[in-house]
Amino acid sequence: MRRLASVLVLGLLVATGCKKISGDKVEEIITNMFKEKGITVKAACPDGLEIKKDSVFKCTAKESGRDLTINVTVLDEEGTVRAVLDGMFVFTDKLAPAVKQKDNLDIKCSAQTIVITPTQPGICEIVGNDQFKKLQIDQVDPEKGEVTWKAIP
Q1: In which region does residue 117 sit, left (phi positive, over 0), alpha (psi from -120 to 50) or beta (all else)?
Q2: Is the pLDDT of residue 136 over 90?
Q3: Which one of 12, 52, 79, 129 is most buried, counting C-beta atoms within 10 A?
Q4: Tens digit of pLDDT for each residue in 22-60?
C-alpha cells in the first residue's frame, strides 16, 4: 500500500441575493480542483439547491470519456461546501519510484496525475519487461490515500 493523495476543496457558493447554491459555482470549483492536478474535466451539478447545513448532493465530472462522481457537502448556512472526489488522484511521480523500489519495475503512465475510483482502476504501461505489460492501480483507502498495484501480462 502507498500513501499518495487526498482532496478537499472549500468555497462559498451562495447565489447572489438568495439562499440557494449556484450549480455553476460548484462546477467551477470542481473544474479548478482537477485543473490544478493537470486534468481537464467538464463538471455538471444541480442548480438552485437550498442551503441546508450537512445536506449532501452529487455532481459529475466527465474525464476522458468516463463519469466521475463528486460528493458535495454543505458545511454551513452561508453556503460553504466541501467537494470530494469519489476516488482519488494518483501522482505518477510518486507512484513510479515506489513501484521501482518494491517490484523493480519501470512504468510509464498516460499523465502525471491519474484518477482511480472504486470501480475504475488506473492503468500504466510497464516498460522494459517481457513478462508484464501493464500495471493496474487499485484504490484501497481513499481517506488515507492508499493504493495497491499489480503487474498484469
Answers
A1: beta
A2: yes
A3: 79
A4: 889 899 989 998 998 899 999 999 988 888 899 999 999
Query: Roughly how many angstroms between the first and final C-alpha of the chain, as a whole number?
Result: 21
Q: What is the domain extent for residue 148? A: 89-152
| Structure-block grid coordinates of residue 69 | 462522481
Count of all residues that appear for the chain in the document: 153
Neighbours of 130 (CB within 10 A): 7
Q: Which of 6-20, 66-80, 98-112 has the highest mean pLDDT?
A: 98-112
3-state secondary structure of 72: strand
Q: Are residues 79 and 111 in the same domain?
A: no
